Amino acid sequence: MSSLRIEWVYLGWALLWAMVQTIVLRQAGLNLPIAASDALLTNLLLAGGGYAVGTGLRFYQPGIKQSAYLLGWSLGLAVICTALFFWLTLKLFKGELAYLELVEATILVRVAFAWLTLLLMLLLSWLWFYNRAQQQAEERKAATEKMVREAELFNLRQQLQPHFLFNSLNSISALAGARPEQARKMIQQLSDFLRGTLRKDNQQLMALTDELQHLQLYLEIEKVRFGHRLNTVIDMEEASMAMRLPALLLQPVVENAIKFGLYDTTGDTTIKLRAGAEGNYLLISIENPYDPASLRPQQGTGFGLDSIRRRLYLLYARHDLLTTAQEGNLFITNLKIPQIP
Question: Running DSSP on this structure, what letter comes out for residue 61?
Fold first, then answer.
């Protein structure tokens, strides 16, 4: 609230109470000019005191344990306002002896009324400034948490890239002598893949069809590495094609499937990716074969899935969006992506 608006609030409050007090004093037998002057002077002084209180609280806000300061401030201001009122009435109404006697007789009542009024304004001002400070603290905390979350998301992404990049460069090195055409093709594919990766933000949501186009670049690179051993099957329901998911979410999951599917088995390997819609969720499953005699799937699914699980938690605050299952000689990774309106 701006300073000018606060001043208008205090002035409006003073005029309202001045009207009420004028009516009360008229009922007590005072004539209209004296009743109106008494009410207007009283409430203008209290409004000035309340404004002084609000101004002071902008620079110093006592805590709850220092609430006695509020009582002291309001009582001191009440005494000052009443003393000013008494002095001004002596100057302005010298000939009105009956009125001056009434003022003198009600001085303690006026002090009590001024104290309660100023105490109320002081408490309201303190609560307003206290709530504003708490809101600003929450905003700073939220901004800090957002920066930390974005930094962690960025770090997760950066940890995923070197592993894939090193493997690709080693494959290019191996192909350069024997099959230079394939090596050049792989370099171009790797360049396109990395360029697309750099363009995407950690928290950017993109349609499943766009994500799959980027995934195809990765799969083409991996097929150059592994040759005929790697086969992929992608099955998408029509309803899921326009649904959205975090950018670059599928590549590390598929990379994990290729790693366990090819390293733990011999011969050809088929990686299956299925996508469908269920209510307000995009459901994706990635299947890869593995050797049941191998202990690796039971011991862990690698950094790739752990990082995806952590990334989904940072984005959606849920731990149940990535699950894994083993069915016979298949290892299945399931993703459940909420669709944010």
Answer: -
CATH number, domain 179-338, options 3.30.565.10, 3.90.1150.10, 3.40.50.20, 3.40.50.300: 3.30.565.10
Q: Which residues contact 26 (CB under 8 A, 6 or more apart)?
A: 32, 35
Percentage of the chain modeled with pLDDT above 90: 13
Percent pLDDT > 70 in the chain is: 79
pLDDT tens digits for range 62-112: 665 666 676 777 788 888 888 888 888 888 888 788 888 888 888 888 888
Per-residue three-class SS string for 239-288: HHCCCEEECCCHHHHHHHHHHHHHHCCCCCEEEEEEEEEECCEEEEEEEE
Residue 121 pLDDT level (bands cut at 50, 70, 90): confident
Sorted by where each begins, the domain ranges of the chain are 3-140, 179-338
CA distances in angstroms from 34 to 52, 92, 95, 99, 151, listed in the order given: 27, 10, 12, 8, 69
d(CA 18, CA 56): 25
Please report, as a single letter, which amino acid is at residue 142. Answer: A
Given the DSSP bridges, would you call strands 230-236 and 269-278 parallel, antiparallel or unpaired? Answer: parallel
